[in-house]
Amino acid sequence: MARIIPIIALLSFTQISIVEAQAYRGRPGPRSRYGANNRYQRSSFFLNPLQKKFKERFFGKDYQSSLLLLNGITRTPGTSSPFSLGGAIRTLAREKLARSKGVVAATPKKSHVIGGDSTPKKLTREEQKLVYARNLIAAMPDHIKRIKEVAKACNGEFKNITNQNRYGKWEKSFAYQCQIARDWENAFKKAAVVIMANEYANFVATVNRAIKDMEKGEGFIYAPLAKFFTSPKDIEKKLNMTAVMLEKLLQVPVDKKGTAKKAKVITVATSKTLQETASTRKWLGKKYPYHKKAVERVARKNFKKRFPGVVVKKTGLYERKWSYTKNHIGIILNRYHTGAALIKLKHEKWCRMMTFKYTEERKTGNRYRSNDFIWVFSEIRYQQCR
């Protein structure tokens, strides 16, 4: 009998240990294994009544999506990801500015916006950003409404709620969810300040890089940056749009006057740089001295098609003879000319010098297929129209 009792005790202890291991996934700490603060608890069985009530009320998909959004804004208000609050605001401000100029952005189908059918379709990166931005902005009023509801409850009946454990996951952090809900307004104000500061910093960095390119060497700049010099008011418009959208979206005040003053600094710098550099530069005739009527005729035709109402002042080629592209065993694939054109757009004060490439594919022998198109390089140089 003396031998049987220890065996039964051992079996009982083993069974309890297995149950505890499944429930706690670790050795119980010094506190009560059923206490609300036990860091090893993992089962909802061990929630206290207040935690159970909070979980039943606010752990639905809608409330949790709102609280997770708030958590992201609280922890990383200035993230530069396009799939974030700041990225969504930037995407929509850019789209709104483009529409004000008559340029329609890529519009995804209804199946990819809130309330539409969920039929899968492969979207481009720009379409994905636009869909995310529109969905987030459309859902934001409901998110704020739910966050306010959680904050009100946390200031009332859930005022003394605690986390289920000290180092638990999000779904165990009841007190933390209440904490960020109570402080939602300060989090949104901070996010608005950081987003506007980042937006301004992005403009400054981009414009400074463009100014350096314009001032050095021949003064060619990346084509998409030309708008900062020819339409500097667009910077003010976009920053102002961002501020207005943030204020409306987050329901917190945004310093629009301060934003306008900062934008003015950028527009003054770009206007001054354009005036100083363009006024001293002339057509690079020595670099592009050669001419071929057939090639230049195609180039003029393409520039007029690309920029309606443009006046093509001059064209020139880099070399007199054709250049050739060969494969790895030396067989000629095509021949080409690189050249430049001096053009004047209606809405711009200065002329643009742009470079291009004209290519003819080889047919057989010394015969080549003529072409009606040119490749225009993504670089622009502003200069005098002569």
Describe the structure in your own words.
The chain has helices at residues 4-24, 49-58, 61-75, 85-100, 125-155, 174-182, 184-215, 227-230, 233-250, 256-278, 293-306, and strands spanning 221-222, 311-317, 323-326, 332-344, 351-362, 368-369, 375-376, 379-383. The chain has 386 residues and is of the alpha+beta class. It folds into three domains: 62-183, no CATH class; 187-278; 293-383. Strands 1, 2, 3, 4, 5, 6, 7 and 8 form an eight-stranded antiparallel sheet that branches. Helix 4 (85-100) packs across helix 5 (125-155), helix 4 (85-100) packs across helix 9 (233-250) and helix 9 packs antiparallel against helix 10 (256-278).
Features:
386 residues, 3 domains, 12% strand, disordered N terminus, 8-stranded antiparallel sheet, alpha+beta, 11 helices
